[in-house]
């Protein structure tokens, strides 16, 4: 028998309503019906076993049975700061970062950043993170924020133990990624990259410059590669 299907639901209580896309997927695609068991989570770290107690035209009522801790949630505190990317590239980074175990994502604008982020886009990033969390069986959804300036984004990482700044013109890395432990912020630029002044500002704020080798990677490749390495060295991929 396969594991119960998982659904993201806001505000879980004893009798919880599954509506919208989750409801349509449960009813029309998975053909779930009364008496079937499901798992629900609200992004806050726990998940709940529930039974479908009623199915009506636009909603399923879920009777919640018990709360369970989710062993698949990340333990390391990884924070990815990424410049806003064109098209749907930011969504791609949000999706992959969620699977890799990021706890928080900051999307920022900077000097050479050509993409913009508005409320709708931010909502979309959060939805993508929720779907990715569901798919990879996490119970927490990464928090996502937008910063209008790089300075504000860098300041938001003040309390992280390790702070790394992927710089395409850094000649060498100031720290080895293998040293990175549980609390780490990682900054990666947008397609346009960083300016020398931005790199200097980051260093003044305690970020260590990191090179990802002699080739210039696309921003999304750089973000996913750097996060994968940090996830590996903090135990999230082991
Ligand atoms: N426009 C820049 C240029 O022409 O040199 C390239 C920017 S790159 C597409 C986007 C971001 O990915 C960079 O700001 C940096 O954070 C990261 N990145 C790409 N390649 C890198 C490398 N070899 N080392 C460190 N970071 C790199």
Descriptive report:
This protein has 238 residues and is of the alpha/beta class. It has helices at residues 20-29, 89-100, 119-135, 150-155, 196-204, 219-233; strands spanning 5-8, 15-18, 37-41, 46-55, 60-69, 77-83, 104-108, 143-147, 162-166, 183-188, 208-210. The strands form two sheets. A six-stranded parallel β-sheet has the order 8-7-6-10-9-11, sandwiched between helices. Strands 1-3-4-5-2 form a five-stranded mixed β-sheet. Helix 3 links the parallel strand 7 (104-108) and strand 8. S-adenosylmethionine is lined by residues 166-168, 188-189, 191-194, 211-213, 215-219, 222.
Fold topology:
Elements: E1 5-8, E2 15-18, H1 20-29, E3 37-41, E4 46-55, E5 60-69, E6 77-83, H2 89-100, E7 104-108, H3 119-135, E8 143-147, H4 150-155, E9 162-166, E10 183-188, H5 196-204, E11 208-210, H6 219-233
Residues 166-168, 188-189, 191-194, 211-213, 215-219, 222 line the site of S-adenosylmethionine.
Question: What do the pLDDT scores average to?
Answer: 94
Strand order of the largest sheet: 8-7-6-10-9-11
Portion of residues within helices: 25-40%
Order of helices and strands: EEHEEEEHEHEHEEHEH
| Number of distinct beta strands | 11
First CA to last CA: what distance? 28 Å
List of distinct ligands in this structure: S-adenosylmethionine
% residues in beta strands: 25-35%
C-alpha Rg (nearest Å): 20 Å
* Main sheet makeup: 6 strands, parallel
Shape: elongated
Residue stretches low in confidence (pLDDT < 50, at least 5 long) are: none
Q: How many H/I helices? A: 6
Structural class, please? alpha/beta
């Amino acid at each position: 028998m396969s594991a119960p299907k998982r659904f993201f639901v806001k505000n879980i209580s004893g009798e919880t309503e599954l509506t919208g896309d989750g409801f349509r997927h449960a009813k029309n695609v998975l053909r779930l019906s009364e008496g079937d068991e499901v798992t629900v989570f609200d992004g806050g770290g726990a998940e709940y076993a529930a039974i479908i107690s009623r199915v009506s035209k636009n909603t399923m009522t879920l009777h919640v049975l018990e709360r369970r801790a989710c062993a698949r949630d990340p333990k390391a505190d990884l924070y990815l700061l990424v410049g806003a990317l064109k098209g749907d590239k930011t969504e791609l980074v949000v999706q992959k970062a969620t699977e890799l175990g990021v706890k928080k994502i900051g999307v920022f604008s900077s000097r050479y950043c050509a993409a913009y982020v508005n409320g709708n886009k931010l909502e979309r990033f959060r939805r993508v993170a929720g779907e990715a969390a569901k798919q990879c069986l996490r119970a927490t959804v990464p928090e996502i924020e937008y910063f209008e300036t790089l300075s504000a984004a860098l300041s938001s990482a003040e309390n992280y133990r390790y702070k790394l700044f992927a710089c395409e013109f850094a000649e060498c890395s100031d720290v080895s990624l293998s040293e990175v432990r549980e609390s780490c912020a990682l900054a990666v630029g947008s397609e346009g990259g960083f300016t020398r002044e931005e790199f200097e500002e980051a260093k003044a704020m305690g970020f260590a410059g990191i090179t990802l080798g002699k080739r210039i990677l696309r921003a999304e490749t750089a973000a996913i590669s750097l996060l994968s390495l940090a996830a590996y060295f903090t135990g999230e991929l082991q």
